[in-house]
Amino acid sequence: MIPLYVSVATRAFRRYSTYTAATLSGLFTNCVFGCIICFVYLALWDQRPNAGGYDASDAVTYVWLGQAMLMTVMVWGGGVTNDLAERIRSGDVAIDLYRPVPLIGWYVAQDVGRAGFHLLTRGLGPTIVGALLFDVRFPSGPVAWLGFAVAVVLALLVSFAVRFLVASTSFWLLDASGPNAVAFLMAAFFSGLTVPLVIFPGWSRDVVMALPWASYIQVPADIWLGKREGWDLLAGLGFGVLWAVVLFAACHLVLRRATRKVVVQGG
Amino acid sequence: MRLIEVQELRRTFTVGRFRAKREVVAVRDVSFAIEAGEMVGYIGPNGAGKSTTIKMLTGILVPSGGRLEVAGLDPSRQRTDLARRIGVVFGQRTTLWWDLPLRDSFAVLQRIYRTSPRRHEQNLAEYVELLDLGDLLDTPVRQLSLGQRMRGDIVAALLHDPEILFLDEPTIGLDVISKGRLREFLRTLNATRGTTLMLTTHDLQDIEALCDRVIVIDHGTAVFDGALADLHREGGSTRTLVVDLVDEAPPISVPGATTRKVDGPRQWLSFPTDASAAPIVAAVAAAYDVADLSIQEPDIEDVIRELYSR
């Protein structure tokens, strides 16, 4: 199975790499937004230094990490699961089901390939630009680097599972744009892309930190910034593993129900 | 050897919701068996239940009732095992990667089906040659014409040496030359490799060129199962000779044909499908001043309609 998934991931990487203009314009947008949010955060941290345990340098680093993760983890939704939703709507999902390959694995492999491409372009690009323009921090040692890398992989898996579940609603609703909009709002807010989850007040912070979206940006960023070390780091990764397992189990259940109960569209 | 066995296959769908909920029968107690090496046309009007049957045969739709066995497997329970032994081609869908060259899609397929690299290369070389795709292997699929893409999809369905090939409207939207080439290829495939073919189509010529046997389905029920010639006989279908005379004339009378309609200088003559048009054309041309002639083949839909209305 591994050679197949590698082969699928490579093709997905190549597929996304064919649209150079889209990649470059997206990269440019990331950088512009990164700068704007940085200025907003700097003004905020000027008023409240040490908000959420972050100093100003942590805050700008967080901004650029957010921009870098945005496409890599597909925080807002989309990516290969949009293809899935469209294929369910048109009935082309039949083709996916005819293959002697588990549907979820097929799409995970594609999403990993896509994420690889986006990490190298939309991830690395803003990080470099951010580092040149602002006082951005880097992980303090190999443990933090490694922890961050694992956290990003987990973020991708959790995000994939959420997006897969959203796309699966098409089996019943035929059009995933409603669930997409809800998922977009939830992710935009609870991933910490708008404001870091650490500055949420009191109990609301405990709640958002327990939701799956916390694994998208907040946990990897805390590892990067050295806020999570030792057991804390492991707990952060464990949190991602837990959500990934729960959500993937949900994906399997939903897919099984869908393929046994639901009509494949079109003649 | 029986490759496909279907007994009283049934599929119902629930449509609507709440109080408007009702049950629609898409396939109603259909039974047939297909032997290895057969080429079978599965035909019927839109909505007759063709695709629903194919979806059940390939395992992506669970039957509501009846028994079903393909290559000794239960399709919906052993979908993955079955997928390795069958090929499926949809005229209106593609399995190829849209943004990538054809070559890439084929390479992924080798991994999917775990075909040995040698076998894969052999098959690829042979099919690419037969379907004349050599120059297109490095072209992104989105730049291919419909006919080229279709040929690509057929190669994709065959690289893993399937025993059965299901084709759902394989010639839809293709021009005459592409259709001819495709039929030629499928005939060769069946003759040289013994691949069993089951195809749905609206094109009577597909059936004439390929299928020894036809199963007609209408409103979910198999209304005919047998040789094509018998279908025409049972359906009472006829070919039509359209004659444009130089001047208006009373209804033409030649042996072997009956004049069905007269409209000014144009007349419609029908004659049996198994008869040759040549003697009739010759007789008409000998006796009348003809400006133009054309022959209309019977429409499969008409044949079925007639079959069903009786």
Automatic annotation (TrEMBL), chain A:
Keywords associated with the record: Membrane, Transmembrane, Transmembrane helix
Transmembrane feature ranges: 21-42, 62-80, 119-138, 144-174, 181-203, 233-255
Matching InterPro entries: ABC-2_transporter-like (IPR010390)
Domain of life, source organism: Bacteria
PANTHER family linked to this entry: INTEGRAL MEMBRANE PROTEIN, SLR1174 PROTEIN-RELATED
Protein name, entry field: ABC-2 family transporter protein
Species in which this protein is naturally found: Nocardioides islandensis
UniProtKB/TrEMBL annotation, chain B:
Gene Ontology biological process terms in this record: response to antibiotic
Top-rank taxon, per record: Bacteria
Keyword Ligase applies: no
SMART domains (alphabetical): AAA
Coiled-coil regions listed in the entry: none
InterPro entries: AAA+_ATPase, ABC_transporter-like_ATP-bd, ABC_transporter_ATP-binding, P-loop_NTPase
Membrane topology: Peripheral membrane protein
One GO CC term, this protein: plasma membrane
Gene3D superfamilies per UniProt: P-loop containing nucleotide triphosphate hydrolases (3.40.50.300)
PROSITE patterns: ABC_TRANSPORTER_2
Domain ABC transporter: 4-244
Subcellular location: Cell membrane
Keywords: Antibiotic resistance, ATP-binding, Nucleotide-binding, Transport
Transmembrane annotation, as ranges: none
GO molecular function, one term: ATP hydrolysis activity
Protein name from the UniProt record: ATP-binding cassette domain-containing protein
Species assigned in the record: Nocardioides islandensis
